[in-house]
User: What shape does this take?
Amino acid sequence: MTRPAATRQVTRELTNDQPVRTQASEVGTPSSGFTMIELLVVVAVLGIVSVITVPMMFRQIERSKTMGFLAEVRLLLQQARQESIRRGVDAVVLLDPANQRVFAFANVDGDADSNYNPDPLVTNRTVDYEIGQRPFVFAGGSPLLMFWGPDDATPDAEDSTEGLSLINGCGDGDAGPACRAVIFQSDGSVRDAGGIRFGIPEPTADPLNPDPGQNFFELRIEPAATARVELLKYNWDPGFGPEGFYPRGFDPDSGEALWRWYR
Assistant: This one.
């Protein structure tokens, strides 16, 4: 059967004006992607960013651990005071550098030297019993914080405490955290006001002999009547006053932060 001439004409025009795309013509189309130079640039940028941010990230983690530990010790002090009021006996918070911890107990037997004298056979708390303890936080096998004051070259020395009560038969000339304790009395007061000081050591090749750092903290317990516990940090060069321990906040005149981190 022969098609009409008009139909043949339209078919030729469509064929000439709109060529049909075949699968073969699409195969040769180039695909999009990264070149080797672009990939190398991305890798270089990532390397630079990691060099800058990774140390900052580790420092932030250490600071978070530091603040967490100090908050736990502060809570332990408050718990010891509450237990002293509840039981009507002294509660003693020992600074224990030998076992790298802060340890609190109820001094039920009233030992004058504030020695811990528990009896494992007695379960009704008619003898000394533990209130709680906070072990030191470690980083890389070494303590992240130690009993350390800003005036001391080594930890566990004289400036690691200020004030507080003498224990363990120590005399006025004896120094160091092992000779001092926070003793809360049954009326909610603290026998001797003062402070417990912690420092972040600078690591050395010998983990047992770190160098003193620049970040020092104090848990201050005063006044004696109310035994308020406040966290302070040492500022070496404040623009608003003398160096010393300051609470967290801002100077009202200059607006400068009272706390400063030194690494």
